[in-house]
Amino acid sequence: MKEYIAILKNTKLFAGVGENEIEAMLSCLGATSETYQKGEYVFRAGEHINQLTVLVEGELHIQRDDYWGNRCIVSRIAVGEMFGEAYASPDSGALLNDVVAVRSSVVMFFDIHRILSVCPSACRFHSLAVKNIFYAISEKNRKLVAKLGHISQRTTREKLLSYLSDEAKKQNSSIFQIPFNRQQLADFLSVDRSAMSNELCKMRDEGLIEFEKNMFKLFSHCD
Amino acid sequence: MKEYIAILKNTKLFAGVGENEIEAMLSCLGATSETYQKGEYVFRAGEHINQLTVLVEGELHIQRDDYWGNRCIVSRIAVGEMFGEAYASPDSGALLNDVVAVRSSVVMFFDIHRILSVCPSACRFHSLAVKNIFYAISEKNRKLVAKLGHISQRTTREKLLSYLSDEAKKQNSSIFQIPFNRQQLADFLSVDRSAMSNELCKMRDEGLIEFEKNMFKLFSHCD
DNA sequence: CCTCTTTTGTTGCAAAAACAACAGACTTGT
DNA sequence: ACAAGTCTGTTGTTTTTGCAACAAAAGAGG
Q: Distances in Å between the alpha carbon of B42 and those of B34, B99, B100?
């Protein structure tokens, strides 16, 4: 587990905590770790969890398949990100989505109650950790709202433009990579892949965008 | 401001805190209050805020109008609920949505930094408040994910069924009221009102549901 | 009680999306 | 290098949506 301390140091959860201090916290917080192969489930919709979870290697998707097999990718978890924290509250119900490894991944689990319940003065980092968790979940909240902004657009084109311009803004460049292939992007925006592919090509023909694989370029006259 | 202490007592933020203790906390947390008439904006998209906010009277909508005038109601704030807490982090950007009074409302503002930054031992309720905020934001997170589940359905009918069955489950009855009129429901599900109205009536004709104004009844053969 | 406004349901039409099926390009593993 | 599998774009058909316009019903206010 110690091999991941360098990674944990750069996570939102441990922001402001030194490496040697993290090592001390690991046992204090009851940390464990687990490895998942591509396609394996970390959690499944319907489960009840009471752990705080951090991805230290690989990539995860928070997603859900409905009766008809339509997949919806709610969000993507990159190395250093937390997940499941919204279900750490005592009265949170069952998990609404699956958590799946997109590729070989390593996950660390922390006992949320130890973080929240232990007297804050017992370990000087408890209060820092709580604040960090608050910031992290706030950020996730804003991400969800942003995504809601994308998929509440009426047409596929509007959804794409909303997502792509947001991504360009985040990466601070009109040329940028997206972390999805076409099927995943369609699942993320909850539209049909072929219709989306069609729309992308139309937009390219109209000179709005250019793309090659996961690399996109936006032209300024996109409104 | 003291007239709202009885209400604050039942909010998520002050869960577990007695009335007399709340009064002491109000000044400790730098609380202020403000009244808004129907249609007035509490916050506007683009603003930067650093306050925690609680609705103590009335009703608010978190919403956004796009270039074409399509409105999207992201969520609804009822008395006792917090809002804006996701933008209390130091590096949170501008507000993505407007916050509007649906009817005459009273809002209380708390300085988030006083809650998070003050030494937890200074006031025995700081750590409780932090935990409460964490739980509240977690719940909002789950709400957002649930809403995402509704609007990521492909057809209007699926969106309606997803929303209505969720509402029935929450209210624990197949007969229930929804907190929206038709236009608001359409804005919430981001679909066209007339198309939605059409679909509702078709579903009624098919014996899936019954409704009158805001009262809905779901029949069990809804899958 | 009447008028004005808001809300809800209804219809027809044009635009868009979902779906299915397929072909070519690209990967991967052997 | 070859075969199997995956990813992406393309096309045609069917279904659904968005939009506009209107009518009936319900509410608000004088």
A: 9, 5, 6
Contact across the interface for A87 and B138, Cβ inside 8 Å = yes
The answer to whether residue B199 neighbours chain A at the CB level (below 8 Å) is: no
Q: Under a CB-based contact definition with an 8 Å cutoff, are residues A53 and A109 in contact?
A: yes
Whole-angstrom distance, CA of residue B203 vs CA of residue A21: 60
pLDDT at B222: 42
Query: Domains of chain A by range and CATH?
Result: 2-144 (2.60.120.10), 153-222 (1.10.10.10)
Q: What is the mean pLDDT for each group of 10 consecutive residues in chain A (223 residues)?
A: 87 88 83 92 92 93 82 92 89 91 94 72 70 89 94 94 93 94 96 95 93 90 47
Residues 6+ apart with CB under 8 A from B204: B210, B211
> Of B33, B37, B35, B38, which Cα lies nearest the Cα of B53?
B33
Residue A127 parent element (H or E): helix A126-151
> Is some CB atom of chain A closer than 8 A to the CB atom of B142?
yes
**Chain A residues whose beta carbon lies within 8 Å of the beta carbon of residue B131:** 116, 130
Q: What pairing do the DSSP bridges indicate for beta strands B32-36 and B98-111?
A: antiparallel
3-state secondary structure B119-182: CHHHCCCHHHHHHHHHHHHHHHHHHHHHHHHHHCCCCHHHHHHHHHHHHHHHHCCCEEECCCCH
CA distance A208 to A201: 10
Residues A201-215 pLDDT 10s:
999 999 999 999 899
Residue B207 DSSP symbol = T
Within an 8 Å CB–CB cutoff, is residue A131 touching chain B? yes
Distance CA A40, CA A49 (A): 17
Distance between the alpha carbon (CA) of A174 and the C1' atom of D18, Å: 31
Across the range B110-136, mean pLDDT stands at: 75
Closest residue by C-alpha to C1' distance, nucleotide C18 = A192
- The confidence score (pLDDT) of residue B223 equals 44
- C-alpha span between B13 and B58 (Å, rounded): 18
Is the pLDDT at B100 greater than 80? The verdict is: yes
pLDDT band at B127 (very low <50, low <70, confident <90, very high): confident
Q: Which residue of A has its CA nearest to B147?
A: A148
**Among A94, A95, A25, A101, CA closest to A59:** A101
Share of chain B above pLDDT 90, in %: 63
The predicted structure's pLDDT at residue A214:
93
